[in-house]
Design brief:
Elements lengths: L6 E2 L5 E2 L75 H7 L7 H13 L42 E6 L12 E9 L1 H10 L9 H4 L9 E8 L14 E7 L15 E16 L9 E8 L12 E7 L27 E3 L27 H5 L3 E2 L25 H4 L17 E2 L4 H18 L12 E3 L4 E3 L2
Antiparallel strand pairs: 1-2, 3-4, 4-5, 5-7, 6-7, 7-8, 8-9, 9-10, 11-12, 13-14
Helix pairs in contact: 1-2
């Protein structure tokens, strides 16, 4: 029997605990040898023997869910026992590092995919997959403060609402529009770094970031993305991997919920994409990270349905010298750009037509076709001086027409930004390609703004004055 979680309302929905009557050491992955908790008193409620939670309020687990009296199924637990000491690179990552990502990109991508799936993706019980607390192979961690706001985590699988899916973006037969939903997670080295920014419930701290500490080499990030669209709209989503999720009704085709109504409902979502990031020292000259993305291709009909995640490609740089504009927003075929040397794309005939990113750089099926994996993530910083994509920026930078040379302003988003360097160097703190960390801090600030009616000077980053606690001087 699955252990259930007692939930209550609060700032998001918080997991609480009734555990065992005796004291029990919970050290293992969470003690002075690299974890966070040890010798916690556990309490039992004999009326609810399957309900477990900590004897202390932690980071909220999720922010959107049916009321406890209405929903009695499994709920999402935020993995937040971040290691206090930096872990060693594990054997699985060492195997990944034994592969040359430039000469054997697909082998590298598949090795990372399988590393992420091991202990997380259950081939015989997909509905109970990626509940990180049950992974007995290796620990994985979530970024806190993703519960807040209109796009915040839902309570069944911890999915956040991502970007829009335009008509024919996934297939020519796709006439419905929707939004993607996703949940991301970090291995123990990544979890260690998250814990440096969020060491405890409360405000984030930036002293380690200001001291130049970034995600350690060996950090692996995974993210699984989902859509309410199905095989009737997107043919390669046959033989689907399906979850229940608490999503906006307006994102569910056929729900009858108009776009103006912001109510959620439990609905089916289908796996469409997986993203990976690896902090690999061999990519230091182009940013320090290797990115990959996969499309769910049910036509592969793998015995393990998670292995239907087919690599679209790998990238370790933005090819900043390649400034000829092209895009392919409603693909009938995958267009390869032979001029790119820092992006590799799958040419296997079994892969569905992909729109890719701007100039045919790597981007996944539900990503924007006028960006790239590295382009978006390179903007991770606080304050968010620049938008994740140039055409969302203020001032806006227009998408260059196909066949023209992009402006220098546009190409600012296609630089190879070194890891740990802010996109707007000198104006912000780098979050080292982690948009989730950026979003967590932004959500926290927004929460304080909303509940305490207070603002922070960092929100006014474009002021002509430089501010400090003891002095304010003009930057002119």
């Amino acid at each position: 029997m699955k252990k259930q979680v007692l939930i209550m309302s609060g700032v998001g929905l918080l997991a609480l605990a009734f555990l065992f009557t005796q004291c029990e050491n919970t050290g293992s992955a969470g003690s002075d040898d690299g974890g966070t908790t040890t010798n916690l008193m556990k309490i039992v409620n004999p009326n609810h023997p399957n309900v477990e939670v900590e004897p202390a309020i932690r980071f909220p687990d999720f922010g959107a869910m049916e009321d406890p009296g209405k929903y009695d199924g499994r709920v999402f637990l935020l993995s937040q026992d971040f290691p206090k000491k930096k872990p060693a690179v594990d054997a699985g990552v060492e195997k990944i590092f034994a592969i040359d990502f430039k000469t054997n990109w697909e082998e590298y991508a598949l090795a990372v995919r399988d590393y992420v799936l091991e202990g997380n993706g259950n081939p015989t019980d997909v509905a109970n997959s990626f509940y990180l607390e049950e992974n007995t192979v290796r620990p994985w961690y979530h970024v806190p403060w993703q519960h807040w706001g209109s796009t915040g985590r839902e309570g069944i699988h911890g999915l956040t609402r991502e970007g829009p899916i335009a008509e024919k973006m996934l297939a020519q037969s796709q006439t419905e529009t929707s939004y993607a939903y996703a949940v991301g997670f970090y291995n123990d080295l990544g979890g260690y770094h998250i814990g440096q920014v969020w060491p405890e419930v409360g405000a984030p701290v930036f002293d380690k970031l200001l001291a130049g500490n970034n995600f350690p080499v060996g950090t692996v990030v995974g993210k699984v993305l989902w859509t309410t669209l199905d095989g009737s709209q997107v043919p390669y989503l046959n033989n689907p991997v399906t979850w229940d999720a608490y999503v906006y009704g307006k994102d569910v085709p056929g729900s009858g919920v108009p776009d103006s109504v912001d109510t959620r409902m439990v609905a089916k979502v289908n796996l469409i994409q997986m993203d990976i990031m690896v902090r690999d020292e061999r990519a230091a000259s182009t940013g320090g990270w290797v990115f990959g993305t996969f499309v769910y291709n049910g036509d592969l009909n793998s015995e393990d349905p998670w292995k239907n995640l087919q690599p679209v490609g790998l990238m370790w740089g933005n090819d900043p010298e390649e400034n000829l504009s092209s895009n392919n927003p409603t693909p009938t075929e995958t267009i390869i750009n032979p001029a790119l040397t820092e992006t590799m794309i799958n040419t296997d005939e079994s892969m569905p037509a992909m729109h890719l990113g701007w100039g045919s750089r790597l981007n996944g099926p539900v990503d924007n076709p006028n960006s790239s994996c590295m382009s978006c993530h390179s903007t991770a910083q606080y304050p968010g001086v620049s938008a994740i994509m140039p055409f969302l920026n203020k001032p806006k930078v227009d998408i260059p027409p196909v066949g023209t040379i992009a402006s220098d302003a546009w190409m600012e988003w296609f630089r190879n930004v070194p890891c740990g360097t802010a996109f707007n160097e000198g104006q912000a703190i780098s979050f080292d390609y982690s948009l989730q960390l950026q979003k967590s801090v932004e959500n926290y600030i927004e929460y304080l703004n909303t509940t305490k009616d207070g603002l922070y000077y960092l929100q006014y980053w474009d002021s002509p004055y430089k501010a400090a606690r003891n002095a304010v001087v003009s930057s002119n």
